[in-house]
Amino acid sequence: MVGYHHTTQQPPKITEHPVDTTVARHEPVTLNCQAQGEPEPSITWYKDGIMLRTTVQDSPHRVVLPSGNLFFLRVVHSRKESDAGVYWCEASNALGKVKSRNATLTVAGNYFVKWKDKNAPLLRNGNLSLSGHIVAVTAVKTSNFT
Fold first, then answer.
1. What is the separation, in whole angstroms, between the first and last Cα of the chain?
2. Which of 7, 13, 66, 143 has the most CB atoms lying inside 10 A of its own CB?
3. Which CATH superfamily is domain 10-108 in?
4. Which residues pair with 128 in a beta bridge?
5. pTM score, two decimals?
6. CB–CB of 91/43 below 8 Å?
């Protein structure tokens, strides 16, 4: 048979899962998701169990790239909106769909340090010494400051 081309259809398979990532507020970040299958799978992203809207009109700071990766132009973390959460991607084609592993996106915040003795010398032989001086380190959400 001349001109006959046979392709074997395959259900989607995730080949690169997103991973836990920590990023500073207003910085860019990419969550990766790669999949194979025939026909080529489409990628859909979810955050905290809800399908993400990723058009420029819906979310101008976040877009799904042609490769399937989720790109944040700048990570948002405020009282109104936060990109922090649990993400996963789903690859689908006519033969099925498959979900990636979960990945937690953490937006780095500010920290307060509580000292045992605020008058304790911190320099010893010209080096900073914190051993024995810190009682607690407390994370404070960045949104408290915006």
1. 68
2. 143
3. Immunoglobulins (2.60.40.10)
4. 123
5. 0.70
6. yes
